[in-house]
Amino acid sequence: MKKILYSAFYSFNEIKNSKIFYSFLIFALILISGSYFVSQTSFIDQGRIMVDFSIFAISIFNIFIGIFIGSSIIYDDIEKKSIFLNLTKPIKRSYYLGGRILGLILAIIMSTFIMTIIFYAVLLIMRKYVSPVYFGGMSLEIMPQSIFVQSFFIIIESSFIAIIAILFSLITSKALASIFTIIILFIGEVSSRLNALVKPIKIISDGKLIIENHASPVTIFIVHLLYTVLPNFSIFNISAETSYKISIPSDIIFYRFIYGLSYSGLLFIIALVIFNKKDIT
Amino acid sequence: MIEINNITKYFRVGFLGTKKNAVDKLSLFINEGEVTGFFGPNGAGKSTTIKMIVGLIKPSSGNIKINGYNALDYKSRNRLGFLPENPAFSRGLKGIDIIKYYSKILNIKNGNSDTERVLNMTGIYYARNTQIHKYSKGMTQRLALAAALLGDPDILIFDEPLSGLDPIGRKEFKDIILHLKEKKKTIFFSSHILADSKELCDRIAVLVNGKLLKNDSLPSLEKEANNFYEKIDDSAALEYKNPLENYLYSLMINNNNNK
Ligand SMILES: Nc1ncnc2c1ncn2[C@@H]1O[C@H](COP(=O)(O)OP(=O)(O)OP(=O)(O)O)[C@@H](O)[C@H]1O
Ligand SMILES: [Mg+2]
To answer: Fewest CB atoms within 10 A around its CB: which of A102, A193, B63, B83?
Structure first.
């Protein structure tokens, strides 16, 4: 069991030193600090623009890390044949795969953490969205709870997406794996809205309740299917709550975490079955 | 002791996915404490066989046992070192990071002294703090050999260990193999050049077109070659000076035609 941790740290170091990870991290940091200047040009609610913009940047760049590093972390290892030395040591394939994924999740946690810290620093400078919390005689300016929760959700969502990308990269090419993952991500973001759109409408006329379907049964079926089968990523987006500093109840945090965890766990098992059968040539 | 029991491996090729045998009903026992050379032309199936031994590829039929464990079980690699053909490492790490990682995976007790030992033995110690993507081909080969020798394994599988090395490197690698031979390690290595590695072998196995044509001790194969040499008439233009080389060359030529 220790081997899976060694493998995770090894992968983490590899990712940490990779150009793509660096670039994403640097670019996000520029955007977050730059959002300070953007918000200066606005007359209304500078803080909110700043928060919306930065959270968008943090989330999109971590999702990118999940998609692009996820689709290459095992694919490239096989393609460049560096996996040969790895897998021919006495280590189970599941440990190798688990280690790779854990290493990537560690990288996502690190990048989200760094980005959130920079974001916090910018908020402190602007004196927006931070409020003092008193510890005895000391006071500390702290961000609203929803921003912490949002960062946590970004980690869950990006890791989830990384596993999808890894799964695809085991059965197709790197480029196709990225494209498929982006499609799944897109559908997962909009499926709940689509589902709401095709819902039958209830009308009361002449004192009677009439249920009217506006969409064709086939469309409804497809939308329902997508909504239930594909992951629903919109639950990890709480931008409304972060803008208005609304705290997220702990049961919601817990359920969404469990949703992400169990769905990713299932995908990991599928990936493992494929990987175990795979000829590494 | 490695037992290869009647393994066949086919790959699906082309649009229709027709089966093509890369290795065909191969049975081979690799004896303990011996050096076995595995010779054959390009595309004979040497690397495919070796990848099945180290568990990277599943045989389509048949099985391989290493010290009693199936080759697909990771435990079969507890005392096994493998040097792949054209080894490569992932970018972004230093040589020493990679060796240290493998040393941990292998659960080596005195890790530091062992990593130093293998790095010195393969002559790459000086570059241990260099990033791996700055290594030359020969340096990568040396680091990969160091990784294979970690933990002083009893079984060593080398796929084309001498390819890509300069004459000095070849000599050093051969000396390492000779040294391992003295320590009574079980060594199985592939090559398509007989001349530069014959003297290392106790036993020679010849694979052509996925089929095992020979598996004999070096002396008995040499005797066979000498008989063959006497039979052919002198006017025939010989490709090689040495009878054994000529014999294997003709074996390869004659069996490769039916492709
Ligand atoms: N992944 C693969 N898919 C399809 N065919 C393959 C695959 N790997 C190997 N082959 C085929 O199997 C045969 C044996 O290949 P292999 O690499 O084992 O040869 P080799 O003896 O190692 O040759 P060389 O001396 O050139 O390294 C070749 O015909 C090759 O084309
Ligand atoms: Mg080969």
So the answer is: A193
How far apart are the C-alpha atoms of B138 and B174, rounded to whole Å? 14
SS3 label, residue A159: helix
Name the residue facing A82 among B51, B57, B88 (closest C-beta): B88
CB A233 within 8 A of CB A264: no
Question: Do A279 and B78 lie within an 8 Å CB cutoff?
Answer: no
CA neighbours closer than 13 Å in the CB half-sphere of residue A92: 10
Q: Is the pLDDT of residue B235 over 60?
A: no
Find the mean pLDDT for residues B35-39.
Answer: 93
Nearest to B139 by CA among B111, B168, B112: B168
Q: What is the pLDDT of residues A31-63, one digit of tens each?
A: 888 887 777 776 777 778 888 888 999 999 999
Q: What are the pLDDT digits (tens) for A79-111?
A: 999 999 999 999 999 999 999 999 999 999 999
pLDDT over 70 (residue B71):
yes
Please tell me if the CB atom of residue B46 comes closer than 6 angstroms to any atom of ligand 1: yes
CB contacts of A13 in chain B (<8 Å) are 92-93, 97
Tell me which residue has tokens 């089966």: B19
- Could you identify the residue written with the tokens 């803080």? A47
Between the alpha carbon of residue A215 and those of residues A186, A193, A204, A228, A229, the distances in Å are: 21, 14, 19, 18, 20
Query: What ipTM score was computed for the predicted complex, to two decimals?
Result: 0.89
Q: Cα–Cα distance between B89 and B145 in angstroms, integer?
A: 12
**In chain B, which residue's Cα lies nearest the Cα of A20?**
B92
Residue of B7, B10, B60, B90 for testing the chain A interface, max A β-carbons within 10 Å: B90
Task: Report angle CA A274, A164, A68 to the nearest 5 degrees.
Answer: 115
CB of B47 shorter than 6 A to ligand 1? yes
Among A66-70, A142-146, B68-72, B150-154, which is the least confidently predicted range? A142-146
B9 CB near ligand 1 (under 6 Å): no
